Amino acid sequence: MIVTLTLNPSLDRTIDVDRLVQGTMTRARSARIDPGGKGVNVSRALLANRAPTVAVVTSGGADGEQLVRLLEGDGIAVHAVPVAGRTRSNVTIVEPDGVVTKVNEPGEPLSRKELDAVADAVLAEAEGASWVVACGSLPPGVPFDIYARLCEFFASAGVRVAVDASGPALPAAVGAGPHLVKPNRDELAEAVGRPVASVGDAVEAARELRERGAGTVLASLGADGAVLLDEDGVTVGTAPVAEPRSTVGAGDALLAGFLAAGARGAPALAEGLAWGAAAVRLPASRMPRPDDIRRDIVRIDTRPDLGRSLIA
Ligand SMILES: Nc1ncnc2c1ncn2[C@@H]1O[C@H](COP(=O)(O)OP(=O)(O)OP(=O)(O)O)[C@@H](O)[C@H]1O
Ligand SMILES: O=P(O)(O)OC[C@@]1(O)O[C@H](CO)[C@@H](O)[C@@H]1O
């Protein structure tokens, strides 16, 4: 069982337009709503591939109720913690040439009591779980070390913790010794305070995060694939997609595939890359099902070309 935690979930509204012109009124061609937030997507991808999961989310107002209804409608086990603030809506605008504009709301603050209720929910669900996966931005005012505290708590309880965080929450979590972190290229660069322009830069940055406390670093590099650094060493992989439709949630699909495959070495990286590429071929934040996943396109390299520049 994999427990995901999304403190700042969302209703993801995806709007298709012919052309987006800033400062004008644009009529949409179509619109859809998906349950959103990084941990939520990890659970969606796991369930779509029959891996047992439960999603712990905060839920506020009518939008929070809709989020829970959508998740339950998909058959996902949800542990919703009621909160006073409204669940946010994040908007993705898609143009026919694939250009994507995304606007994420900050979310609403959580009270001390609400945070305690979230902690109780994660604790209850983590009983017997293989992983607790804490993902996504923190609502305003939530302490940046909350994921770090989660790592410290579960280290003594013997449950592995994976963290997908940005900003100061990532280095804080790394220092608390998580089993796994999944930064993207920007998050990796911010965490080490230098640019990540090549595969070698990504490997060096991942090495630094391991030295600071992370057990495994799974760094996602968009179209350049991913770098895995764990106790077995460095593995780099790619899974090219000729015509990407939407990269929203691709990192979550990568992480879900990696965990579902056992989170160790090249086979898990290959599975994650296959799920990530499948997500990119699907519209909006649709998570891949078994039929969408092609493992034959994955290329794994245990002796990567460290000098290879990443796509700008
Ligand atoms: N253009 C692309 N072509 C092929 N694969 C891609 C592309 N973009 C993303 N991917 C796949 O998806 C994975 C995650 O992408 P990325 O590094 O953009 O994650 P992310 O920023 O965490 O995404 P999100 O936050 O939307 O989930 C990559 O490691 C890769 O496997
Ligand atoms: O604002 P955050 O928490 O960083 O990211 C939230 C989000 O962009 O991440 C998911 C894709 O990974 C979307 O479902 C959601 O809208």
From TrEMBL:
Q: Where in this chain does the record put each Carbohydrate kinase PfkB domain? A: 6-267
EC identifiers of the protein: 2.7.1.56
- CDD domains, per database record: FruK_PfkB_like
Protease in keyword set: no
The record's keywords, sorted A to Z, are: ATP-binding, Kinase, Nucleotide-binding, Transferase
InterPro entries membership: 1-PFruKinase, Carboh/pur_kinase_PfkB_CS, PfkB_dom, Ribokinase-like, Tagatose/fructose_Pkinase
Please, which domain of life does this record's source organism belong to? Bacteria
Q: Which PROSITE patterns match?
A: PFKB_KINASES_2 (PS00584)
Which chemical reaction does it catalyze?
Answer: beta-D-fructose 1-phosphate + ATP = beta-D-fructose 1,6-bisphosphate + ADP + H(+)
**What does the record list as GO biological process?**
carbohydrate catabolic process; small molecule metabolic process
Record keywords: Transferase included?
yes
- GO annotations of cellular component type: cytosol
Extract the GO molecular function terms from the UniProt entry.
Answer: 1-phosphofructokinase activity; ATP binding
| Assigned protein family | Belongs to the carbohydrate kinase PfkB family.
UniProt-listed PANTHER family: 1-PHOSPHOFRUCTOKINASE, 1-PHOSPHOFRUCTOKINASE-RELATED
Its function, per the record, reads:
Catalyzes the ATP-dependent phosphorylation of fructose-l-phosphate to fructose-l,6-bisphosphate.
This chain belongs to the protein called 1-phosphofructokinase
- Source species: Actinomadura verrucosospora
